[in-house]
Structure formats: structure tokens, C-alpha cells
Amino acid sequence: MKLHLRGIVLLVLFAVFGLSSAQAQPAIQPTVDITQVPVAAQPSEHFNADAATEAYMAMIPPAATARSNAYFEGGYWLIFWDFLYASAICLLLLNLRWSAKMRDLAERITRFKWLQDALYWGQYLLLTSLLGFPLEFYEGYVREHKYGLATQSFWPWMGDEGKGLLLGLIFGALAVMLLFAIVRRLSRSWWIWGTVAMTGLLIVQVAIGPVFIQPIFNKVTRLNDPKITVPILRMAHANGIPTNDVYQTDASRQTTRMSANVSGFSNTMRITLNDNLLRRGSPEEIQAVMGHEMGHYVMNHIPKTIFFLAVVYLFFFAGLFWGLQWALKHWGERWQIRGVGDPAVLPLVFLLGGIFFFMLTPVTNTEIRMHEKEADMFGLNAARQPDGFAQAAIHLSEYRKMRPGKWEERIFFDHPSGYDRIHSSMVWKGENLELFEKAHEQPTMLTPAAH
Ligand SMILES: [Zn+2]
Asked: How far is the CA of 415 from the centre of ligand 1 (A)?
């Protein structure tokens, strides 16, 4: 085991230093000017949503489209490579009996079962993180820099990876201890109680996320620029959101992506904008994006998604109940795994989980995409900024493919495509032209961003 590990460490060091030297290129900053509402999208008797959409689409230079298509389509392959790579690691740990050896070591250190589970988890996470590092490094660092989306140099990026690892050690250990305790005590019904426990853990994780987890990676502050907060809070109050705060996060520490989100559960639920959106978005665009986020809030998309995942977990644990028995009957002895209550079974759990969630990708994407579509429609109605929303869709095209095929969208997209978002905006605008025609004050110019 030592020899193998040394080889892996050398490989990782080679990958880090070999590849990081190729990273000196400057970030590609997109330069699409989208402050002008295109002529075909301005209110007129001949307003046509399709033509208005095409006029917006035509604002994106072909080179930018090619770049974001390549980035996004590469993401499809990464889903596949991530799956294969993770599966290979699991099979390696089982077949070389490294998993059994980690369990043996944990048993030599302590006689307490729950502590053995935690010690096993520590070894498991460190080893799989090390083995998975080359792909993680390519995906999270090299590729993000290549497409001009990353702002972090290597060591700050590694710092964030380290924080993530530490959180994984703590929260993962708690989850593993809880789940194995359930499996060992309830040999017939653990799949039901496992689902309950996993859902409980998910709720805790979502609830503490914005308050305890996010601040570990980014500075989260209350936004206090009245020019931005006043229209947002008015929109919030008009739509039954009882908040007086909007939060901002310094996402520019890691990325050039513009985004905003709703996070938390119950008392910790809140809307956060990232500083890239604040810096580069026009007020109309910020309002359009906030209208969308408020849609998630008002329509309870977080609790609904938790419920959806609870159902998914139930299927997963039921499948696991049978899958583990079947696999252990065939290979348990060879892998030196004593049963489902033995922590050494974990690579097998992750292998089966990987297969299950990989196959489920289109389903989970579709569940999220349906919520996103609802939020889009809510946002158009709440913010009444169709041009701002079209502008946001174009900004997001820096990292999302704008015009996918029908099935491509259904399988791989967890948001409506940029084309769909602009088209919805223009259909909405076409049905509400009177809002934009008043006294010839219609905005043919979106307010340029502050900087
Ligand atoms: Zn959304």
C-alpha cells in the first residue's frame, strides 16, 4: 500500500506543477455590449417575439458562442468521466482490499464501533481525494482558467479545496457514524430509516449553509446601496417576502460568473447576489435576476427539492438494500467485507450510488429545470424587466450554451437555455407592450453598469 501511495503522490505533484506552469494566460473577459435594446426588440406595432429574440441572440459574437458551447459541451463529457473515474477508484479500493485494510487499521486503533466508522471515513476521504485529485484539478482549476472563468491562482484555490476537505471530514464522519449505527441496529428496515436520516442531514445542511458554510469560503455582507436595495425590497414586499435584507457575496474571489441564489431553510432562508452581478449588471438586469430568485423563494422551491430528494433517497436506499446483498454474496469474501454494517463496504456504496445518480442525471436536471422555468416566469411578472432578463441570459451565456437541441436541453440542462429565457422575455414583452410605450419614454437603452 505504501509503494502505491508514493507513486500516486508523485503523479499528483507532477500533475500540479506540470499543468500549473501552463496557466499563465490572462482570463478572457467577455466584451459583449448589451446595454442597447436591439431595434427588433423595441416596442412597435410590428413587435415579434421571435424576431426580437433573434436580434438579442445576434448580439453575441460567434467566437463567444463557440467558446461557451465548447465549455458547456465539455461539461457533458465531464459528467461521464467523473462517473467512470470515481467508479474506477471504488473498484480499486475494493479489489486491492485497501478498503478492508483501512477498516483493519481503524479496528486496531479503537474498539468503539462508532469511532472505527469515523476513522475509516477519515482514511477513505483522504485517499479518494488524493486519487481523485488529477481530475478535480483539471475540472476545477485548469479548465476554469482556460475559459477565463476562474480568478484564483493555484494556492488560494488549494486553500478552498482544503477547507472543503475539512468540512467533508467533519460532516461526512457524522453522517457515516449515524448511517452505520442505523444499519447495524435495524438489519431489515435500515433502508427506510436511512432515508429518514439522509433527509434530516440534508435539511440541516441546507439550513446551516448560508450562515455557517458559505462564510467559510466567501465574505457575506448585507447589501446597503439604496439604489439597488430599494427596488429589490419593494419587489420583495409586494410579493409577500417579509425581509429587509439582501445579501451580497464576494464570489469574484473565485470566479467571473454572475449569479444570485436563494439558500437556507426556514429561518435562514435568504437571497444573495454575487458581486460580479452587482458590478457588471445594469439595474434592470439586477431586478430581473432578483425577480427570478424571489420566484424560488415564494414558490418554496427549496422545500420542494428536499422532498423530491427524499423520494430519490428512498429509491436509492431500497436499491442499495438489494444491491449490497447481491454484490456481497458474490464478491464479499474476495473484498474481505463482512457485511452491510462493515465500514469497508463504503466503496461499494459509492460505486452503486455513482451508477444510480449518473443514470438519474436527466431526471434531477429536469426537476431543477422545471423550478427554474417557474422562477423565470415569476421573475418576469414581478420585475417587469424583460430586456433586463434578456441581458442576464446573454451574460450567463459566458458559461452556458445558448441554443441547445431539444433533447440536449432535456438531458443536460438544469436551467432553461439562454435562447428559451430570451424568448420567454420577448413573448412577455410582446403581451405587455403598453408598459414600454408610455409617452415615448420607452427604454431603448438599458442603464449601463456602474463600472
Ligand atoms: Zn434559479
From this structure: 7
How far is the C-alpha of 171 from the C-alpha of 105, rounded, in Å?
A: 21
Name the nearest CA neighbour of 162 among 306, 42, 170, 186.
Answer: 170
Q: 247 has which bridge partners?
A: 222, 272
Q: Are strands 270-274 and 247-249 parallel, antiparallel or unpaired?
A: parallel
**Cβ(114)–Cβ(181) below 8 Å:** yes
CA of 303 to the centre of ligand 1 (A): 14
Per-residue pLDDT of the chain in tens (451 residues, 90 and over written 9)? 333 434 433 333 333 333 333 333 334 444 556 678 999 999 999 999 999 999 999 999 999 999 999 999 999 999 999 999 999 999 999 999 999 999 999 999 999 999 999 999 999 999 999 999 999 999 999 999 999 999 999 999 999 999 999 999 999 999 999 999 999 999 999 999 999 999 999 999 999 998 899 999 999 999 988 988 999 999 999 998 888 888 999 999 999 999 888 888 888 888 899 999 999 899 999 999 999 999 999 999 999 999 999 999 999 999 999 999 999 999 999 999 999 999 999 999 999 999 999 999 999 999 999 999 999 999 999 999 999 999 999 999 889 999 999 999 999 999 999 999 999 999 999 999 999 886 445 556 676 554 4
Q: Compute the distance from residue 383 Cα to the ligand 1 centre, in Å.
A: 14
β 247-249/220-222 pair status: antiparallel
Ligand 1 centre and the CA of 209: distance in Å? 17
Note whether 121 and 172 are within 8 A (CB): yes
Measured in Å, residue 347 CA sits from the centre of ligand 1 at 33
Distance CA 186, CA 317 (A): 13
